[in-house]
Design goal:
This protein has 467 residues and is α+β, with helices and mostly antiparallel strands. The chain is built from nine helices and eight strands. The protein has a single domain, classed as Outer membrane efflux proteins (OEP), CATH 1.20.1600.10. Helix 2 packs across helix 4. Strands 2-3-4-5-7-8 form a six-stranded antiparallel sheet, with no helix packed on it. It has a two-stranded parallel ribbon with strand order 1-6. The protein is elongated.
Length: 467
């Protein structure tokens, strides 16, 4: 009765599990590189990061707008008690330049009974031009040129920020991919273990029927099948959960989340991730200088230095020279040199407390940013060294265990031959087989550990996008 119940239970559970398996015959392989390409193209965080560069370009366009030529026109009219007090009309074109010199040209025509004599113009109007030249402050730089220069640097900084955010995203996505791959490898081991156990159970059952094996062996073989079936189910659950987790990084072009198809399986040998030719550390410092975080820090320092130059410029007196040649619209005598307006304006704070305070603040910001950058650079150098050490020893451990697993396989094969010839017990063959199965799981862990260490190395170098 016990054996019949056991057989019924085994057959029922096997049938239920195999029926639940709708394993496709034509699987599609997904490599880590292909996965990264999908993440880069469609993931919302990737798209959001790319907008950083577009925003920086928009800010640069706005900064260039400070140098756009501008049309201007102003008209004022006063009419009171049937008298035209005055009509004032003035319009033209102003042209700022990137060298601090501004140009203006226009036409002015004024008339009226009570017109201010200062505003008198010829009957047909007055053409004029203006050149405004800074003599001290504003010669080297000014606010408009500073904003433009900073916006140009910010475009480069935004590219570094994009690379940094993509590196972070690829690191999370890459770990998820490797865990998915590990769960698939383990699932394959547990599935094969179940097949071996089930084959042995059938063989032991036949041997018992022929009187070659005791009844207790069928019980032991049946227990082994159920244990391995449970292991297979647990591995399958782990694989499905890791598949769901991986699907979180997969999106479609229309910004809708995607679900990983059951026909897709991970690439068993992601060669690119263990390619030693990419991992030479000839100069850690030069590698660190290319890291997005360090590049962004350098660009930040560059922008702060541009701001400091503006603050230093404001310590100088503000002296502007204006020259305006005037041309009577009704005359064509070409007498431009004798008709003009000119003037000089001076502005200089006596104590310069605001200017000196802003300059000191700018210098302190540079010091703070430099200290932060030095810390980041040293931290990244150490992380690269540790990641490379981890990769080196993980590879050695993997090679050692590859040799050792052959020994486990040899012990299992030898015990299997003894069992098939009736010279070994079911306990011994199960023991050897379980040891070999556990060794395969451990080998998967070593492979995962190596791949993860390489992922860490590329991440610490800020180069995951290059995988």
């Amino acid at each position: 009765m016990t054996r019949r119940i056991l057989y019924t239970l085994i057959f029922t559970m096997i049938s239920l599990h195999l029926c639940a398996q709708s394993e496709p015959e034509n699987n599609q392989v997904l490599s880590l590189k292909q996965f990264f390409e999908i993440v880069y193209t469609n993931h919302p965080l990737s798209k959001q990061a790319k907008l950083i560069v577009e925003n920086a370009k928009s800010m640069n366009l706005a900064a260039k707008g400070n140098f756009d030529p501008k049309l201007y026109y102003q008209f004022n009219d006063k009419y009171f008690n049937e008298k035209n007090y005055y009509d004032l009309g003035n319009g033209g074109l102003s042209i700022p330049t990137k060298y601090g010199v501004d140009f203006k040209s226009g036409f002015e025509r004024n008339e009226g009974v009570f017109l201010n004599p200062e505003n008198n113009t010829p009957t047909q109007g007055l053409y004029y031009a203006q050149v405004s030249v800074p003599l001290v402050q504003g010669v080297m730089t000014d606010e408009r040129r500073t904003i433009l220069k900073q916006s140009q640097i910010n475009i480069k900084a935004s590219q570094a920020e994009l690379d940094f955010q993509l590196n972070e995203l690829f690191y999370k996505a890459g770990k998820s991919f490797l865990e998915w791959q590990l769960s698939f490898d383990n699932l394959s081991v547990y599935k094969n273990a179940f097949i071996l156990g089930n084959q042995r159970f059938e063989a032991v059952k036949k041997s018992f029927q022929f009187g070659d094996r005791p009844a207790i062996d069928t019980v032991e073989a049946g227990i082994q099948v159920l244990d391995r079936l449970a292991g297979w189910q647990q591995a399958e659950l782990e694989f499905k959960n890791k598949t769901v987790q991986l699907s979180g990084f997969l999106w479609m072009n229309n910004n809708m989340p995607a679900v990983l198809d059951s026909t897709i399986i991970p690439d068993m040998k992601p060669v690119s991730i263990t390619d030693d030719t990419k991992l030479e550390l000839n100069s850690i410092k030069s590698i660190v200088n290319l890291h997005p975080n360090i590049r962004a820090g350098n660009f930040k320092l560059e922008m702060l230095n541009v701001d400091k130059r503006l603050k230093m410029e404001k310590l100088k007196p503000l002296i502007n020279l204006n020259y305006n040649p005037l041309i009577d619209a009704g005359q064509n005598n070409g007498n431009y040199l004798n008709n003009y307006k000119w003037g000089v304006s001076l502005n200089f704070p006596l104590f310069l407390r605001k200017e000196r305070g802003e300059l000191q603040s700018a210098k302190l910001k540079i010091q703070q940013s430099q200290l932060e950058l030095d810390y980041k650079r040293n931290d990244l150098e150490n992380r690269i060294r540790m990641a490379d050490n981890e990769r080196t020893y993980s590879k050695i451990q993997l090679e050692i265990f590859k040799l050792n697993i052959k020994n486990y396989e040899s012990l299992w094969s030898a015990e299997k031959r003894l069992f098939d010839s009736g010279e070994s017990s079911l306990f011994m063959i199960n023991s050897r087989e379980n040891t070999y199965i556990n060794a395969q799981i451990k080998l998967n862990d070593y492979n995962f550990k190596l791949n993860k260490s390489v992922l860490e190395l590329f991440y610490s170098r800020g180069q995951l996008r290059n995988l």
